[in-house]
Amino acid sequence: MTTNDDGLHECAATGCTRRLSHRMLMCTRHWRMVPPALQKALYGAYKAERGGGGRAVITDEYAAAVRECVRSVQITEAHNASVRENMEREPERNDEPPEDVAQCT
């Protein structure tokens, strides 16, 4: 996650190139994938480490919270991709029973 001269950085989610304010870790799409408990942990680590000058200090606790948030998004995206793949492979379902079952009644 690198900040350029414009003060913006890319979303921390793997592969996302959306440019964001330095105040945001991830774009809205990816941030919504982070469970509320992890969001709260990240905010807690960030607020606890703010220096008197208003600048955040990157601590081990904050860095660990960032990694957990990123990993959570990776897991969610992998799960969603797997579900989509399975849905594409699944044959169409027909509500009618097969012919041989229908003849037994």
Task: Provide structural commentary.
With 105 residues, the chain is mainly alpha-helical. It has a domain at 27-89. The protein is built from four helices and two strands. The chain has a two-stranded antiparallel sheet. Strand 1 and strand 2 (19-21) form a beta hairpin. Helix 2 runs antiparallel to helix 3 (60-89). The longest helix is centred in the C-terminal third of the chain and has 30 residues, at 60-89.
Summed up:
This protein is mainly α. It has helices at about 30, 35-50, 60-90, 100; strands spanning about 10, 20. A hairpin with an 8-residue loop joins β1 (about 10) and β2.
Radius of gyration computed on alpha carbons: 22 Å
The portion of residues forming beta strands comes to 5-15%
Spans of 5+ residues with little confidence (pLDDT < 50)?
A: none
The number of strands is 2
Averaged pLDDT, please?
82
Structural class: mainly alpha
Query: What is the string of helix and strand elements?
Result: EEHHHH
User: What's the tally of helices?
Assistant: 4
SSE inventory with pairings:
Layout: E1 8-10, E2 19-21, H1 28-31, H2 36-48, H3 60-89, H4 99-102
Antiparallel strand pairs: 1-2
Properties at a glance:
105 residues; two-stranded antiparallel ribbon; single chain; mainly alpha
